[in-house]
Amino acid sequence: MSSSLACTTNGNLETKINKLTYIQLTEVINENNLLKDKVQQLKIKLSGLESGQINIILQGKLFSKFINRESRTRNIVLFNVPEFSSTSCSLRIVLPSPSGVFEILKVKRKLLNVTKFTSVCISTDRTPLQQNYFKSILSEIISKRDNGENDLIIKYINNIPTISKNYQSSAPIYQLTSNFDPEHFSNLWRHTNIVLIPKPIKNKFDIKNYRPISFISTLSKLIKKHTEICLAFRRNENLITIALNITKTYDIAWKKRVLTIFHSFKINGNLFIFIKNFLKDRKI
Prior knowledge:
This protein is of the alpha+beta class. Helix content is 50%, strand content 15%. The chain has 8 helices and 7 strands; from the N terminus they run αββααβαββαββααα. The N and C termini lie far apart (138 Å).
């Protein structure tokens, strides 16, 4: 009897100990997970503070670079300035306002024609960052020229150097631009050559079975190129493109009626004179 009671007591104690151990282990695990979450939250906050400090440092550097660049906007730098000792030097000139810098840059080519300034190079006062960017643009344009691309120039857009095409180097486009301003249109552009193309599977001995094709100057392509160098893409400027397609009436079109229609569309100025000259005295 006594031995059975002892076994029962020992079994109850082991059960209670096992229950306590399980409860404690569960609490420890929960507390451990809670601590891990808090540590992770602290890490996130610390990383945020560190990135905030980095952003403040970057903003400070950018602001100092902006101040440095802004302080140079009134400066002009002259390179290779001759001295009395037969040597050259560089001069930095501070002007009253940035507008004076642009005025000098506009006429710097005229200054270079003067004997005393033939070897002098005139430039804006660039920051080291701007100098490195200009060098990269210069190396890029040299690489493109070596690969066969022609008529490339460095053009400043919003005071940023960019690679652009020099459209004025194209003779036909330049001629069209120069003729358009004084309201003149070349007589050669009004003449055409007619070539008869036989229609397929038709009797070649019948004149009606030939399609006449006229070859004239490709004005549409010239005007298309002309738009790339005109004022159409500047503020408060406009451009009108008109395509003339007068079927079978190259030399007998009712010119006054065509011009009247253009007037009704309120087309006037140089464009109207341009079209009028195109319709006048055309020959086959």
